[in-house]
Design a protein that fits this description.
Blueprint lengths: L5 E2 L19 E4 L2 E4 L11 H19 L4 H12 L3 E2 L3 E3 L2 E7 L7 E6 L5 E4 L10 E8 L5 E8 L4 E8 L5 E10 L4 E3 L3 E7 L15 E7 L8 E5 L7 E6 L5 E7 L6 E6 L7 E5 L6 E7 L2 E6 L7 E6 L9 E4 L5 E7 L2 E8 L2 E7 L5 E5 L6 E3 L9 E8 L2 E9 L5 E5 L10 E9 L5 E9 L10 E4 L17 H4 L4 E5 L8 H6 L7 H16 L8 E6 L1 H12 L6 E5 L18 H4 L6 H10 L1 H4 L7 E7 L8 H13 L6 E6 L10 H18 L2 E2 L1
């Protein structure tokens, strides 16, 4: 059955009255300015009155969404679109080849394995971890010989993990389950044990919202209790907020990265081939991003943006590893460089205007070839063990469903390995990149995707999505959900705004701290460009972003409530004066600055902080989304923002908050949860634009 939609007057859905959200008289003083925070009580996610408020708000939201006549039709369409086999790229561990597969509508993808071309078998099925499908597999690592595996599980989307060790042959559990592990990999040293990182669990208050300050690196010896795990790095002597560790492939070196914020890290190394050898410092500051990507004997390969905002690959001898001794192997270019290795080769993946360009080098830095990609888009996964002869990579774009290719490292030939089974014909659509000027004249790229033949008359429903922070690059990627928009003449647009990493560290820094307004200006200018060029108009424009992108949407609608018809701030950082008081929030100070830094920084944050910037005005139809187990951007941000927005709304458009239960910041959600949220998003958007399905 085909659906089409026409533009029509919106039926008048009766919104239940919003809950009477009580107001307190809490205030804070910053540099002589008193700031009221009437909804502070909503920060306590364990309090009965907060739980009652969540229930009441969800009742209003579900009542509203339940009256949209085509909500179920959209959900049915999404369910049908989602129902195809999905594969992850294969990887080899010991004698097995492993890969992830989802039959279509399974809550979580299943980890399969096979020997050569033998019969595939299920290795781990996360759908059996919990009855409701909300416990997910959150990472796995294998010993070098593939005989043991340590896998992490996340319950209800939390960032806190448990670690379980298995013998891979018969899947018997080894030792006890490790608990309270957070922001960590598991790095094996032989078959003896592994390194992992965690925080002390908050002793007071909420386990989900409590501040997690200092990371610690431990070594867990198999067969011993977790209480006996040895502290390797961190703690009182070297307090760091983020500590990550990994071993070089030959397991000779332990590499430790230590950081206090999400940008810039120290680098340490320890020679494990000599018992009792010290941990040696390579980089002793947080000014740049540095990582050891490989070694050949004592020659270390380091990916860095020291003196190279777009990154370079350098080499150095382990015995004299300070940065003054680093030698360029692949120098910086005008495009941002990422590095991976496989089959004894180096793969240099460049971002050229936010799309992929990949080159293959030998270990001495000699260019062997440019790799031919299927189209313009995003390629990822050029990595394999040193002895491998082939690797697998995935290619995607806004109109190219994720496709897996097998790559022969010796010849450079790619062959199709797994094509996506999604119901989508790329020939009917186009994606084009445009460049527009922001408020200060900076040129910003944007990719606009739509059905061929779409008439640009200002009446097309358009979803404008962006992120703009933390050096993260928004590269083209296919979305099954977006088919619902595109197949009916809608448009999807993604600008690569400042704060991201698309043009290196300079681009990132241009959207941080006292430059953060650039990010909002870039996004607003994107909307104005789309309206001016008749891709859409104010009445058919929706804006969307999650996490730091939720901050972007919150700031956009408080600064320009007249800009769009619909807004989706998802799991957003919305209280900029208190974000650093919760969980890992203090680590975001490099991007945001804090209200305690200086009078100037406080005033800057106070001015744009979405929660504080809400004034009485006519706001667009807004659906705030969050989750009760989000322990990265705590739901208090969304609770407080939605309460104040409901209070200050002078127009007729609804202000709803959709609170997912048993879910976190995004990772690990069940397929049913994802489809349900996407159906609600499109229903809310189309309905408030007066679009009849």
């Amino acid at each position: 059955m085909l659906y089409g939609y026409t533009h029509a007057q919106t039926m008048n859905i009766k919104t239940l009255p919003y809950p009477k959200t009580k107001k307190g008289d809490v205030t804070d003083a910053y540099f002589g300015t008193t700031v009221p925070d009437p909804y502070r009580w909503l920060e306590d996610d364990r309090a009965e009155d907060t739980k009652a408020w969540v229930q009441e708000e969800n009742k209003v939201t579900q009542n509203y969404l339940g009256q949209i006549p085509y909500r179920e039709q959209i959900k049915e369409r999404l369910t049908k679109l989602w129902n195809y086999e999905k594969y992850g790229a294969p990887f080899k561990e010991g004698k097995y080849t492993y890969y992830y597969k989802n039959d279509g509508l399974q809550s979580q993808s299943v980890l399969w394995r096979q020997v050569d071309k033998g019969q595939p078998e299920i290795f781990l099925d996360p759908n059996k971890f919990s009855k409701d499908g909300t416990t997910s597999l959150a990472g796995i690592s294998f010993t070098k010989d593939g005989s043991l595996a340590a896998y992490q599980i996340s319950e209800g989307g939390s960032d806190w993990r448990k670690v379980i060790v298995l013998k891979t042959d018969d899947k018997t559990v080894v030792g006890d389950t490790l608990i309270d592990v957070k922001f960590s990999g598991t790095s094996w040293h032989g078959n003896d044990g592994f390194y992992y990182s965690s925080y002390d669990k908050p002793k007071e208050g909420s386990q989900l919202a409590g501040l997690t300050q200092y990371h610690k690196l431990y070594y867990h010896k198999l067969g011993t209790p977790q209480t006996e795990d040895k502290l390797i790095f961190g703690g009182e002597k070297t307090p760091r907020r983020y500590i990550g560790a990994g071993l070089t492939e030959d397991e000779r070196f332990l590499v430790i990265s230590a950081a206090t914020t999400t940008t810039g890290n120290e680098l340490y190394i320890q020679d494990l081939s000599k018992p009792g050898s010290p941990i040696v410092n390579i980089v002793d500051n947080f000014n740049n991003d540095n990582s050891i990507v490989d070694n050949v004997g004592e020659k270390l390969y380091i990916h860095t943006n020291l003196n190279a905002p777009n990154y370079r690959l350098v080499t150095v001898d382990f015995n004299n590893p300070k940065s003054s001794q680093w030698k360029d192997l692949i120098p910086q270019t005008e495009n941002v460089l990422n590095i991976s290795t496989g089959g004894g080769k180096i793969f240099a993946s460049y971002l050229k205007d936010a799309t992929s360009f990949v080159q293959q080098y030998d270990m001495n830095g000699k260019l062997e070839r440019n790799i031919t990609l299927p189209s313009v888009g995003s390629a990822g996964g050029f990595g394999a063990k040193k002895e491998e002869k082939e690797l697998y990579y995935t290619f995607t774009s806004y109109i190219y469903p994720a496709t897996i290719f097998k790559y022969d490292i010796a010849t450079g030939k790619s062959e199709l390995y797994k094509k996506s089974g999604v119901q989508f014909n790329p020939d009917l659509y186009e994606s084009k990149q445009v460049f527009y000027n922001s408020k200060d004249g900076t040129k910003i790229p944007m990719i606009i995707t739509y059905k061929k033949g779409t008439v640009m008359n200002g009446k097309n429903p358009l979803l404008l999505y962006a992120y703009g922070g933390f050096n993260a690059s928004m590269t083209p990627g296919f979305s099954t959900s977006n088919i619902v928009l595109l197949e009916h003449g809608g448009i999807y647009a993604v600008p690569n705004i400042r704060g991201g990493g698309e043009y290196g560290e300079k681009w990132h820094l241009a959207g941080t701290k006292l430059n953060k307004q650039n990010v909002f200006d870039d996004f607003i200018a994107a909307a104005e460009y789309l309206i001016k060029n008749k891709y859409t108009s104010k009445d058919y424009l929706a804006v969307s972003g999650g996490s730091n992108g939720g901050l972007l949407i919150g700031a956009t609608i408080t600064q320009r409530p007249d800009l769009c018809k619909v807004a989706f701030p998802a799991v957003g950082v919305l209280d900029m004066l208190r974000y650093n008081k919760f969980t890992a929030g203090a680590g975001w100070a490099y991007d945001y600055g804090t209200a305690e830094d200086s009078k100037e920084m406080f005033e800057y944050l106070y001015k744009y902080s979405p929660y504080h910037a809400i004034k009485p005005a006519s706001y667009p139809a807004t659906m705030v989304t969050t989750a009760d187990h989000d322990d990265r951007v705590v739901p208090a941000h969304s609770f407080k923002f939605a309460s104040r927005l409901q209070e200050m709304q002078k127009g007729n458009a609804p202000i709803l908050i959709r609170i997912e239960t048993n879910a976190g910041h995004g990772a690990g959600r069940s397929t049913a949860q994802i489809i349900s949220e996407q159906a609600d998003k499109w229903s809310f958007m189309f309905y408030n634009m007066g679009v009849k399905w």
